[in-house]
């Protein structure tokens, strides 16, 4: 939700800020703007729409200055218009601020400022900050401190002042902000991708902290005004990881990266003896032995990853495992205690619904384990333990490699729990581990056979609705397939448990309605397989066009498939790691055929930092 960049150095700030915004545009693309300070002058330019619109404006302007801030917006308060785009300025135009998050007490603050004679230039919650900082006057850091003490809600703020060239002040509460430490220049951003081409040395800030950067200094204080210290870390991927690398869309690149990142998720976490080694998870074996209940909390695709892994976790550990939408979790007062393990899954580590769910779990004394892709983000910081998924930067809004790596990481946790608790013998764990290690090659194989799926997507592009069905682990895969199609192709798509169709949804089937059917392996779980084959026949008898995803060698289902997509044979519990991939390709190609922006679907943002 909103991308933020700040720069203080010796080079021209505009290009650096705009390049940073380009890398952060996935966080929001309703409008964009910059403010640049040069020798006592402040220039602010902003424009509704994608960053390209702002760049057109900038092309006609000569904006000089070595200090600047920039913002790309996902609208919350106030529509996506020029006037609501950030930065927002003080009345005299000498202070500019940008904001990510929601200032919950903005109405009261706005009323107070209006009563004092301030005329607002936007409908946003954010603008109050510019006026409050101006009202404080004096040093920008001290003014920011005084203002933050009055704000409620979640925010990352950056401010520059025409009166303090060479200084950018940032503040964070429950919203992301990292510092990039350069040589003779420093950076602020929502995430490291904004400055990774300039420096890989970063400083992680804590909650409720203010940071002041100049070309040569980074100073941190808490909202209590006391000096504080950020945590230095080195970013272990480079700028090329955040580029499209020859693909038309980030999403296509990220789909293609899946075999490699899955291997990374597993790397070093399996000993030669076939045991799971999760040393970095800061939970002791005794902690894990004490667990008597597991809750997985997450949102969207990460929630589907949780639903998929519940089957394996319960089967392998015999511990009851519930999966909950993070946005619902705390409102129903779940029964949690010291023996409950809450697993919070999040690619970004900044999803506010998941943060609030984990905070609730901690108040109830449950232990929280984060499954996260983003080093140093809020969710791992606030959890008792973390297992990083090592997916590398995921830029496309639609999650793909994050999903597969989240599932793989959860499998590792499940196996680790089973091993520590003595429920599975080493050789049993080793056998599953061997199957897991074979998955990257299987995903590679799926990817090499996707041309017919792309052709199918082009054919289906006019369909008003597409349904997805599956049973057991195939059910959450169906939900994920439908989510991908909804968010990218903007058509009605729904996933169902195949057995539920006859209780209502089968009425949706009309002549030619495409139904994507996820078929379990006939080996080992033939009862499951046979039931899904029956469900396929039921929808076909009512006119559906059946698009069947089945494992190689499954000839029984072939006769009921209008379109058949074979994937390599995989044990039932691990099958989602291969059956999800054709659905990702289908959704991306359909969106492309329909002329949609595959990486930045409408109304969405990559990182949802509001509740
Ligand atoms: O960063 P997170 O994994 O916490 O994000 C959760 C969801 O917002 C996310 O998975 C979303 O549903 C996907 N972008 C959909 O493709």
Task: Tell me what you see in this structure.
This protein is α/β, with parallel strands linked by helices and 611 residues long. Helices cover 35% and strands 23% of the residues. The chain has 18 helices and 25 strands. The strands form 4 sheets. Strands 3-2-4-1-10-9-11-15 form an 8-stranded antiparallel beta sheet, covered by helices on one side. The protein has a 7-stranded antiparallel beta sheet with strand order 5-6-7-8-12-13-14. The N and C termini lie close together (11 Å).
Short description, anyone?
This protein has 611 residues and is of the alpha/beta class. Helix content is 35%, strand content 23%.
List the helices and strands and how they pair.
Elements: E1 3-8, H1 13-24, E2 31-38, E3 41-48, H2 51-59, E4 67-73, E5 88-89, E6 95-103, H3 106-115, H4 127-136, H5 140-148, E7 153-161, E8 168-173, E9 178-181, E10 186-189, E11 201-204, E12 209-213, E13 218-222, E14 227-228, E15 231-234, H6 250-256, H7 258-266, H8 285-290, E16 293-298, H9 300-317, E17 321-325, H10 326-329, E18 340-346, H11 352-363, E19 367-372, H12 378-382, E20 385-388, H13 401-420, H14 426-447, H15 451-460, E21 465-470, H16 474-489, E22 492-497, E23 514-518, H17 526-541, E24 545-551, E25 563-567, H18 576-593
Parallel strand pairs: 16-17, 16-18, 18-19, 19-20, 21-22, 21-23, 23-24, 24-25
Antiparallel strand pairs: 1-4, 1-10, 2-3, 2-4, 5-6, 6-7, 7-8, 8-12, 9-10, 9-11, 11-15, 12-13, 13-14
Helix pairs in contact: 4-5, 7-13, 7-14, 9-13, 9-16, 14-18, 15-18, 16-18
